[in-house]
Every structure is written in C-alpha cells, then in structure tokens.
Amino acid sequence: MKKFYLGLFLMLVTPLAAFAQQAQQPAAAAAPARTPALIVAVVDLPALIKAHPVTVDEVPMLQEQFKKEAFEAQKTQQNYQKEMEKVSREYDIGTPQFEEAVRPIKDGMRQLEAQMQDKQAEMQNRLVPLQYKVYSDIQKAVEKVAYEKRAYIVHAKVKVDRTGVSEELAAVREADANGSLVWNRPECDITEDVKAVLYQIAGTPKGGTQSLNSLAAQAAGAAQQSAGNQQRAANRNTTDRLN
Q1: Where is pLDDT greater, at 15 or 134?
Q2: Which contacts qualify for 108-112: CB closer than 8 Å, 24 or more apart?
Q3: CA torsion angle 6 8 12 18 (round to 10)
Q4: String of b and e for 83-121 (b: at least 16 CB within 10 Å)?
Q5: Which pTM was predicted?
Q6: Rounded to whole angstroms, how far apart are CA atoms 235 and 230?
Q7: Following CA atoms 89, 91, 92, 94 in sequence, which dihedral angle do they give, to the nearest 10 degrees?
Q8: What's the rounded mean pLDDT across residues 107-136?
Q9: Residue 6 has pLDDT above 50, yes or no
Q10: Bridge partners of 156?
C-alpha cells in the first residue's frame, strides 16, 4: 500500500515539476543580458564645456560687453596721445610749463589703465560663478551616466581638432594634452551620453560656440595690451622729444 501511494505521489509531482521548469525557461530567455560594466570611462571634457549653454550663450555676451568697453578705452587713450603731442608742440620738453601741461594727461592715462584693470577683475568675478555652473552641471551629468553604465572611474580626455592640422601634429598635441591617458576602447567614451544628459540638466544652447576657459583672458588681454601699447607709444614719443 505504501508503494502505491508513493507511486501515485511521483506521478502527480513529476508533471508539475516539468511544467514549472518549462515555465521558467521562457522567462529566463526573455530577460535581457546585463550590459558589462565599463569600470573605467572617458569624456572629452573640453567638448562638454563648449557644449554647455552658459559657454555658448552667456559668456559671449560678457565678451561683447568687455570688447565695447575696451574699444572706448582705446579711443580715450588715443585722445590722450593727441593731447600729449599738442603739448609737446606748444612747450619745450622738460620746462615747467610742459610738465604742468602734461600732468593731467599722464594722470588720465594712469586712471584709464586702472579702470581697465578693474574691468578685467570684474569680468573675472562674473565668470567664476558661470564656470562653477558649467563644472557642476557636467559633474552631475557624468555621475548619472557613470552610474547607469556602472563605471567606477571617469577620466577627462582631450580630443584635438584635426581641421587644418596634420594627423601627426594632432596626435602629438593630443598625447601631450592627455597626460597619462594613452588609449581607450571606443565604447569607454561616454561623451555623447553625458552631453545628452547635460542638455537635460542645463538646457540646449541658442547661440554660437566659444570656449569658456580662455574667453575672458583673451578679451581682457587684448584690451590691456591695446591700452599698454598706447601708453608705451606715448612714453616713447615723449622720450624721443626729450632726446
């Protein structure tokens, strides 16, 4: 009798076990294979900086404002130069009359130079929070993509623009710019994924593209150099007349 019940139990359980196994197989087959972790990823950081809407839209407006101020300063400097030449024609260089006449002109030149230095400092102070905004948004986008792709480390990578540059020169520049990063597999480059997330965080640009890191320095440097050239020209002109 015990053998009968055991045989009956096995007859009932075996089909159920087979059915359960068959039911699990389609589910296992339908489950997608998990993408392997990247472990180490790279991003073209300069490209992300240039793509940020702050870099594209806000920084050029600051640059344009500073260029206008530098242009006005240059015109004022030229006026001072003309006044200096006029005084040099009217009075003998080195005489009390000459020194008295050129004193306000020299004072004006010094004040103008100080004003341009203040403008440059103001420009830099306005750029710092914008730079932080760009860095912070990029950091958030990189973090999101890195977690999604299960990357533990993300290295910054620089890609040199090949336009008008030989492949050899571009390769050397790229090697110098990337330091210890020598090579990466193409699938490790998450730049485009990060850029897409970056646009979700910060919005899409509306204008042209210019580099945030060097924009203020270029504008301020050009203006300061122009003012300095005018000052040196005025000094040379006075020295020549003294000689």
Answers
A1: 134
A2: 108/76, 108/80, 109/77, 109/80, 109/231, 109/234, 112/73, 112/76, 112/77, 112/80, 112/227
A3: 60
A4: bbeebbeebeeeeeebeebbeebbeebeebbeebeebbe
A5: 0.66
A6: 9
A7: -120
A8: 93
A9: no
A10: 43
Torsion of CA 170, 176, 178, 180, to 10 degrees: 140
Give the containing element (helix H, strand E) for 68.
Answer: helix 59-90
Cross-strand bridge partners of residue 153 = 40
Q: Rounded to whole angstroms, how far apart are CA atoms 156 and 138? A: 11
Q: CB count, 10 Å around CB of 77?
A: 22
Q: What letter does residue 189 receive in the DSSP assignment?
A: B
Beta strands of 147-213 (E only): which ranges? 151-157
Nearest to 159 by CA among 169, 148, 179, 173: 173
Picking from 12, 115, 66, the residue whose alpha carbon sits closest to that of residue 223 is 66
191-203 pLDDT, tens digit each? 999 999 999 999 9
Q: pLDDT digits over 70-81, tens only?
A: 999 999 999 999
Q: Going along the chain, which residue ranges are E strands?
A: 39-44, 151-157
**List of residues 6+ apart from 197 with CB closer than 8 A:** 140, 141, 144, 145
Please write the tens of the pLDDT for every residue from 159-175. Answer: 988 899 999 999 999 99
Confidence of residue 224 (pLDDT cuts 50, 70, 90): very low
Q: How far apart are the first and last CA of the chain?
A: 134
Write the burial class of residue 1 (CB in 10 Å: 0-12 exposed, 13-18 middle, 19+ buried).
exposed
